[in-house]
Write a structure and sequence with these properties.
The protein is α+β, with helices and mostly antiparallel strands. About 25% of the residues lie in helices and about 10% in strands.
Length: about 70
């Protein structure tokens, strides 16, 4: 799984972690996993669940399908 900086440049006010850094997060802390389309986030969520992470969510559709426009 490789994240690109472009995927996260639109996210403000959040802590962005790489796949290797996420293991430093408390397994019980609510964690939202986001990638470009959602597939890599889902795969990472499954891995984290296997390691005891109990409070993870995936943004389905990723950043591509969840863009909001300001009006």
């Amino acid at each position: 799984i490789q994240n690109t900086p472009e995927e996260f440049e639109r996210l403000t006010g959040v802590e962005v972690l790489t796949e290797t850094e996420v293991t430093n997060v408390n397994p019980d802390k609510k964690t939202v996993i986001i990638c470009d389309k959602g597939k890599r986030a889902y795969l990472l969520q499954q891995r984290l669940k296997a390691f005891g992470y109990t409070n993870t969510l995936v943004l389905e559709g990723g950043t591509i399908f969840n863009e909001l426009e300001e009006k």
